[in-house]
Amino acid sequence: GGGFIIAPALMSAGVKGILAVGTDLFHIFAKAIMGSVIHRKLGNVSVPLAAVFLIGAIAGATVGGYVNRLLYELNPILSDAFITTIYSLIFGFLGFYSLFDFLNARKADRKKAAPKGTTAHEGGGAHGGKTEGTEMGNLPRKIQALKIPPMVKFDFDLVPGGRSISWVFLVASGFLVGLAGGIMGVGGGFLTFPIFVYTLGVSSMTTVGTDIFQIIFTAGYASITQYAIYGFIFYTLAMGMLLGSLVGIQIGAMATKVVPGITIRGFFALSVMAGFVNRIFALPAKLSSIGLITLSKEAGTELDTIGIWAFFIVIGLFAVWVIGTFLKNIPVLRGEEVKR
């Protein structure tokens, strides 16, 4: 959904945390509708996975929104510090974990590369990453082996007969994602991706499409019932971001069609690290403002400035990477055979 980029950017621009959260959720809700249409056409959406996942996600978003409003009513400064702390902790863990996973996966993929002259390999080919994910780690295997009915089936185009997982794990995962989304103002994609791929054993491509589909309902519900009716949405900002999304979603969705699933993991790691860098440098000033640490106002401002510059540099690199990948593969998107 892009919340791990938008919310830090808004807070860096001086928007209050709870207003950034509400605005981001509303923007993501509208953007997810566009993205879902595209990914549905690409065959990346599993409706059964999303439907069961949403049971937990709606409940989690309700709790998360309530916690945010409660803290804001107690003390707006405390609310900002709380949101920044949550961002720093979650993004720090996910960012480093996904970065190391990407590097290790790329190293392993090179060893399995097809002989010279072929156009595809095990980790994904010239036509995208649909072949990615045929091998799973021990944890996904164990979870999928627990047959607690009803079972939800998915990834039919990846393995014969598809894979299946118990609804219990999907509902629990949905609650965690919804809770984080309600607190942080994100669609939850930064959590859904690692949970689906690394824990539940869903392929990267199915994860991307299914996640943005469920975001329509999770972000839509949270933005309206937890923030809009309380006046915590900046509609002008949201509409401006949506205009940019009209172009960005087209490029991003088409990029998933022509890159290996491993590369999608690289996109994910880089973008989450950008949000982490931004919030971790903003954290000292936030903690100082509520008296948890002692820090001069000048030092806090300098650290915050460093975080803002680092954030936009990393995001700039991310944009160059995605757009470059799209432009490089235009011939493939047009149906031409191109040697890798």
Keywords summarizing the entry:
340 residues, mainly alpha, two-stranded antiparallel sheet, two-stranded antiparallel ribbon, 4 strands, 74% helix, disordered C terminus
Can you tell me about this structure?
The chain has 340 residues and is mostly helical. It is 74% helix and 4% strand. The protein is built from twelve helices and four strands. The chain has helices at residues 3-12, 17-41, 47-74, 76-111, 138-145, 167-184, 189-200, 204-227, 235-258, 261-289, 297-328, 330-333, and strands spanning 120-121, 124-125, 151-154, 163-166. It has a two-stranded antiparallel sheet. Strands 3-4 form a two-stranded antiparallel sheet. The two termini are 30 Å apart. Mean pLDDT is 80; it is low at 116-134 and 336-340.
Low-confidence segments: 116-134, 336-340
The gross shape turns out to be globular
In the sheet with the most strands, the strands line up as 1-2
* Order of helix and strand elements from N to C terminus: HHHHEEHEEHHHHHHH
What portion of residues is helical?
A: over 70%
SS element count, helices:
12
Name the average pLDDT: 80
Query: How much β-strand is present in the residues?
Result: under 5%
Q: Distance between termini?
A: 30 Å
Largest β-sheet summary? 2 strands, antiparallel
Rg (C-alpha, Å): 20 Å
Strand tally, please? 4
- Structural class of the helix and strand makeup? mainly alpha
Topology:
Blueprint: H1 3-12, H2 17-41, H3 47-74, H4 76-111, E1 120-121, E2 124-125, H5 138-145, E3 151-154, E4 163-166, H6 167-184, H7 189-200, H8 204-227, H9 235-258, H10 261-289, H11 297-328, H12 330-333
Helix pairs in contact: 1-2, 1-10, 2-8, 2-9, 3-4, 3-6, 3-8, 4-10, 5-7, 6-7, 7-8, 9-11, 10-11
